[in-house]
């Protein structure tokens, strides 16, 4: 594995318990509209679903409650996989879980899934092209791929005094490291065009791009806050984006 994946794997193993159920369907992201409002997923009854970056398994549990026939998940972190296994088993499900990076071949079946989704995990990949090509290969033709991640503008703006100031670069497409919950991690900034164009190259048609803040946050008075995921910020720019694509 490359050094970034190795570092992120150790850090996610160490952080796993603190993320138990924190970003899971029907939630797509902080202060973003939920699946209950967006209805991006097809009817899951009898469907085979795969979660990329499944974390603690809470999104897979939601799919199970919606009637999905098979629950499959993949995650870089061994600890997340073991948490997901326990959580889903306790809830009466029999998931098939793979401990692997999304950008590498890991033996998942080809042209098998009706729906592949990823809630706040795609941006962790070190190789977006390989991740999308792998995901395309797991889907049946006509299958749906839905994912959410931080909006690319988020890493370009800072709060200075009580203003959002464009202080970064939207153009630079580079990896950066920081400390998350006490652990060193590395992620990469990407432009929106990188996601759209890599989807096209992998054989997807993009059906929806959601760049919204939830209506509750937009309708109330938000006090000033410099927080990264604050309502004040969310009233000025979407914190997350969500894409629904279909494999040709
Ligand atoms: C914010 S959490 C997602 C939580 C999850 N969606 C849920 O429903 O609980 C991000 C997840 O991505 C995983 N991850 C990070 N890099 C990855 C990679 N390259 N391949 C697969 N999973 C990765 C992490 O281990 C972590 O579980």
Structural summary, described in words:
This protein has 248 residues and is α/β, with parallel strands linked by helices. The chain has one domain (21-152, 191-247): Vaccinia Virus protein VP39 (Rossmann fold), CATH 3.40.50.150. Helices cover 27% and strands 28% of the residues. The protein contains eight helices and eleven strands. It has helices at residues 3-15, 35-38, 58-65, 78-90, 128-138, 192-201, 215-219, 231-234, and strands spanning 48-52, 70-75, 96-99, 113-119, 139-150, 157-160, 163-166, 175-180, 183-188, 204-210, 240-247. Helix 5 (128-138) crosses helix 6. The mean pLDDT is 96. S-adenosylmethionine binds at residues 5, 8, 12, 19, 23-24, 53-56, 58-59, 74-77, 80, 101-103, 119-121, 124-125. S-adenosylmethionine binds next to helix 1, helix 3 and strand 2. This is Methyltransferase type 11. InterPro entries: Methyltransf_11, SAM-dependent_MTases_sf. GO terms for molecular function: methyltransferase activity.
Can you tag this structure with a few keywords?
single chain; two-stranded antiparallel sheet; alpha/beta; transferase; 248 residues; seven-stranded mixed β-sheet; 11 strands; Methyltransferase type 11; binds S-adenosylmethionine; globular; 8 helices; Rossmann fold; 27% helix; methyltransferase activity
């Amino acid at each position: 594995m490359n050094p970034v994946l190795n570092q992120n794997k150790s850090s996610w193993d160490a952080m796993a318990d603190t993320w138990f159920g924190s970003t899971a369907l029907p939630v797509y992201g902080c202060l973003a509209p939920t699946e209950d409002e967006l209805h991006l997923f097809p009817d899951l009854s009898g469907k085979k679903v795969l979660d990329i970056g499944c974390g603690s398994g809470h999104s897979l549990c939601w799919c199970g409650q919606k009637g999905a026939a098979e629950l499959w998940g993949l995650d870089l972190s061994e600890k997340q996989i073991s948490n997901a296994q326990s959580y889903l088993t306790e809830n009466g499900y029999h998931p098939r879980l793979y401990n692997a990076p999304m950008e590498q071949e890991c033996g998942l079946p080809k042209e098998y899934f009706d729906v592949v989704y990823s809630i706040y995990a795609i941006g962790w990949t070190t190789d977006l092209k390989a991740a999308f090509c792998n995901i395309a290969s797991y889907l049946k033709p006509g299958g749906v791929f839905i994912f959410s991640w931080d909006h690319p503008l988020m890493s370009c703006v800072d709060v200075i005094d009580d203003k959002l100031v464009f202080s970064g670069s939207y153009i630079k497409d580079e990896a950066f490291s920081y400390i998350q919950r006490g652990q060193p991690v590395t992620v990469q900034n990407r432009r929106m065009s990188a996601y759209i164009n890599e989807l096209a190259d992998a054989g997807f048609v993009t059906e929806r791009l959601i760049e919204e803040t939830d209506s509750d946050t937009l309708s109330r008075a938000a006090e000033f806050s410099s927080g990264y995921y604050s309502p004040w910020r969310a009233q000025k720019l979407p914190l997350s984006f969500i894409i629904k694509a279909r494999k040709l």
